[in-house]
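Take one record.
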Amino acid sequence: MGNDKHEDGFTLIEALVALAVFGLAAVTLLRLEGSTLTGARLLERKVIAQIVARNLAAEAVTDPVSVPFGTASGVETEAGTDWHWRRETSRLPDSRLQQISISVDDPAGGEAAALVLYRRVG
């Protein structure tokens, strides 16, 4: 029957190629996880900033006294974080309406949420 040997298994080169492919896949998954976590963190901050902006808008609309014209700013604590906000109130050409612009900054310093609303003066 001769010297025909049929061996099962992988050669060293095949094993190294398989290991390299697995390593690349693992690194890609780790990077994807990091990007996903970063994206989730940014989304969470934007949602909380929107909550702060909407709370300020609700106060401006439901207050029996019109919001004073000009600029106001402050800090609100939400979800254990201080959020700096700015409100600019201006009169529209129709003198019976005012425009209220609210912006909320991310703790890192960039604008995270913005909202514009209109209210009848008086």
The mean pLDDT is 87.
